[in-house]
Design goal:
With about 170 residues, this protein is an alpha+beta fold. The chain has seven helices and seven strands, in the order αββααβββββαααα. A hairpin with a 4-residue loop joins strand 3 and strand 4.
């Protein structure tokens, strides 16, 4: 359902739809079960595409309206998370897009080391990610679903595939 929800119709009649800019982040959340803040705070230095894994050790959360950079919600949230082949490929393709944007923006690009950024390298405010997801889901005609429900969906699918419940809960 995520691939369908992420396709945005083009403004030109007959043109092909394109994937939303947040697709790589939402793909990661829905396949791995990261929290919104953990995805927003993921750093490239903790992303091993060759080894198909990421290290969760940062998050960007919302306190009031202010975005706060901190450690993950719980100590159990910190650690290495394995990526499936498709998710690693999505993140690798995103890396190429981000590098091209970095070159295009030149010295104005904000080099904060984050995996998921706006075109100018600035971080995503967690509320923006939630609002964008809700609009995409609505536009796709999906029943009401919260961004956090992707985390629960990933856990349910992992358990159905035979994953250990202790590993999934961590």
């Amino acid at each position: 359902f995520l691939d369908y929800a992420m396709e945005i119709p083009s403004a030109k009649p007959g043109a092909q739809p394109h994937q939303d800019r947040l697709y790589p982040m939402l793909h990661l959340i829905s396949h791995v079960g990261l929290r919104r803040g953990e995805a927003c705070g993921l750093h490239w230095e903790e992303t091993d595409l060759a080894g198909s894994s990421i290290m969760v050790s940062h998050q960007i959360t919302q306190v009031g309206w202010k975005a706060v950079h901190s450690r993950p919600k719980t100590s159990r949230s910190e650690g290495v998370v394995r990526l499936d082949k498709d998710t690693a490929a999505v993140i690798a393709a995103w890396r190429k897009t981000q590098l091209a944007e970095r070159v295009s923006w030149g010295p104005a690009w904000e080099n904060n080391g984050l995996v998921f950024t706006r075109e100018d390298g600035t971080y995503y405010h967690p509320a923006y990610v939630t609002n964008r997801f809700e609009r995409l889901a609505f536009a796709a005609g999906l029943p009401p679903i919260r961004l956090h429900d992707l985390r629960h969906g990933a856990a349910t699918l992992a358990l159905a595939a035979g994953a250990d419940i202790t590993a999934v809960s961590a």
